[in-house]
Amino acid sequence: MNEVSIASDLSKNPVGVAVVGCGYWGPNLIRNFSAGPASRVVALCDQNEATLNRVGALAPTARKTRDFLTLLTDPAVEAVAIATPVGTHAALATAALEAGKHVLVEKPLATSEREAAKLVRLAEHVGRTLMVDHTFLYSAPIRKIKELIDAGELGEIFYLDSVRINLGLFQNDVNVLWDLAPHDLSIVDYLLGRSPIALTATGACHTRGGLEDMAYLHLDFGEGLLASFHVNWLSPVKVRHLIVAGSKKSLVYNDLNPWEPVKVYDRGITIDETTEARRGVLIGYRTGDIWSPHMEPEEPLRNVVRHFAECVRTGRRPLSDGEAGLRVVRILDAAQRSIESGGARITL
User: Fold this and answer.
1) Per-residue DSSP letters for 130-168?
2) Per the confidence metrics, is the pTM higher than 0.85?
3) Which of 21, 165, 223, 338 has its CA 20 to 30 A from that of 31?
4) pLDDT over 60 (residue 36)
5) In the chain, how many domains are there?
6) CA–CA separation, 150 vs 146, rounded Å?
7) CA-CA distance, 271 to 282, in Å (whole number)?
């Protein structure tokens, strides 16, 4: 089935979606599932009656309920989008899959590797789509970076350096690593297509909540390839950038720059490989052009919900499937153990 026929089929038979959790991220899901022809919001679920009433205008024909289990008996609900606190993801997704529903879960997929692995196995067993909302994978800048890496434009990748810091928003159920790092871990997993062999992590808490509000995570992929991540709820400034450095070129992705989010730098080092030069370890510096590839503005979440609907109807495996979610959770789980061990190196 080609893309045109898939789109035609979806417009004639849109996927009926229930959005569970209508607070912070839920309204964005409701709006995007309602906007496209591939899906329609048939139900809304939240424990808070006032929240349900507030978001009801976004999907005026949708059924509203506070009873999640009753919702799963509704035949109009083909798929469930879960945007609840992280600690509830595994239980809600399990119940939805067991009820025969397709499931889209906000990041992270679960709060432990064991829970995430169980969800992946369950989805395979019942033959339903399990997808994680790793939103950045569906954005034009990240797709362009992937294209440049796969085309060899950057050469051999040396390192990746990610910073995602701001003042707040403090969570009460997960620490800053589990809250912010899934974004960048999913990006790096997608860009490299390989998993790290070991990691170290450190973190600290500066409030009474007991949850780390700043953390540093370092991944070792072997063969000299390293990736580092700084996440922080205490920074006085908001920073969202990723550096990908290669042997030929490097690039900087700035999510806060809507006009030129990706800049490619023809800058780096050159090593003279002649015998005479090697004795002196001669290193030269290359300074070339800087350019920013053109990208049409788009809302990544709209791509997420469209892709989810297509996968539900066609059986295609999502780009950010359960396995991708599991890989991210596996790193987070090991990173938490490293933090609790004082920054010990964890082999994966």
Assistant:
1) EEEE-GGGGSHHHHHHHHHHHTTSS-SEEEEEEEEEEE-
2) yes
3) 165
4) yes
5) 2
6) 6
7) 6
Do 213 and 312 lie in one domain? The reply is no
What is the 8-class DSSP label of residue 334? H
CATH number assigned to the domain comprising residue 290: 3.30.360.10
- Select the more confidently predicted residue: 169 or 261: 261
**Closest residue by Cα to residue 161 from 117, 225, 212, 72:** 225
Is 324 part of a structural domain of the chain? no
Confidence band, pLDDT 50/70/90 cuts, at residue 282? low
pLDDT of residue 256: 96
Are both 121 and 184 inside the same structural domain? no
> CB–CB of 262/145 below 8 Å?
yes
Residue 99, pLDDT > 70, answer yes
- Judgement on whether residues 125 and 10 belong to the same structural domain of the protein: yes
pLDDT of residue 127: 98
What value, to the nearest 5°, has the Cα angle with vertex 93 and ends 89 and 98? 155
Per DSSP bridges, beta strands 262-271 and 250-254 are antiparallel
Q: What is the DSSP string of 266-317?
A: EEEEEE--SHHHHHHT-EEEEEEEEE--------HHHHHHHHHHHHHHH-PP
Encoded tokens for 329 = 């959770």
Q: Are residues 229 and 337 in the same domain?
A: yes
Residue 325 lies in a domain: no
Query: Where does the pLDDT of residue 267 fall: very low under 50, low under 70, confident under 90, or very high at 90 and above?
Result: confident
Residue 210 has pLDDT above 80, yes or no: yes
Cis peptide bond prior to 251, omega within 30° of 0: no
Is the pLDDT confidence value at 332 over 60? yes
Residue type, 143: R
Shared-domain flag, residues 257 and 203:
yes
CATH of the domain at 61: 3.40.50.720
Question: What is the rounded distance in angstroms from the CA atom of residue 180 to the CA atom of residue 172?
Answer: 14
Asked whether residue 326 is assigned to any structural domain, the reply reads no
Q: Are 82 and 162 found together in one domain?
A: no
Going 186 to 191 to 197 to 203, the CA torsion angle's sign is negative
| Helix (H) or strand (E) segment spanning residue 29 | helix 26-35
CA–CA separation, 167 vs 113, rounded Å?
29
